[in-house]
Amino acid sequence: MKKLLTLVSLLVVASLALTACGGSGSSASDLLGAIQERGYIMVSSDPNYEPASFLNTSGTRPADTKCPEGALTTAEMQGFDVDVAKAIGDSLSVETCFPTPSWDAITAGNWADQWDVSVGSMTITVERQAVLDFSVPYYGTPAIVAVPTDSTAASLDDLAGQALCVGASTTYETWLNGGDLGPSIAVFSPAPAGITVVSLPTDQECAQALSRGEFAGYVTASTVVDSNIADGLEVKYLGDAVFTEVLAAAFDRSSSLDTTSLRTAVDELFTAMHGDGRLTALSEQWFGTDLTQVSQ
Fold first, then answer.
1. Which residue, 13, 46, 150, 179, is most buried by CB atoms nearer than 10 A?
2. CATH, range 140-244
3. Which residues contact 275 (CB under 8 A, 6 or more apart)?
4. Where does 2-138+247-287 sit in CATH, by number?
5. Is residue 26 pLDDT above 80, yes or no?
């Protein structure tokens, strides 16, 4: 799975590079104008992050889609982040398209105009703010350590000296490595002592690889663990949340076109969706609870 998803991401990025979504061939003076001119917005997404974003295996790509080859359509994707991204496209009267680059490429910035915005449950951190701009938050999640249901570990201390899995370039990886998560994240527990960090391209791949016995558990959002349990994976929470995250849409600070008006439009939309209950409804639909009550 790891090699397959990595190859898919590389192929998608290579394909999208041929149809870069920045200023090339556009008369627009900013990114919002370019998006409205072409009729679609490119929103980076993870096709393996259920229930926030994942493939709709019964969906069929519309014949009349404006989405470039290599980018998925709203018919081919589903989940909370997908619906939030679609709301952005609808508010701009354009089609929403989903390129699927790797998470480390998204968080690194310097997107080379290959996508316009990330709506991928990204935590706002000081390190990321050096290369990315963020919208107002649209929801938040507790970070959980999950272990097999037959694990004898009763606390984080019981995992000392063992291996734990995380998605690469995530806040979970930073926490396991003892890094600084910044002022926007409330940390409740330090990582177990002397652990070995196993990094895979996505959080879900940790869950999917757990049965191989290469690590004692994995760290991810509570929503991912809940989804794994609902899908029949024999895992459980190991205690309470270890930290909480505030999640927002992200924009590349190195974009060739100014992103200010696009960020303003997304901020206004998210604020309206908080106010009228649309975000709450989507959260309850996909997560079974309201995770949208975060500081804005």
1. 46
2. 3.40.190.10
3. none
4. 3.40.190.10
5. no
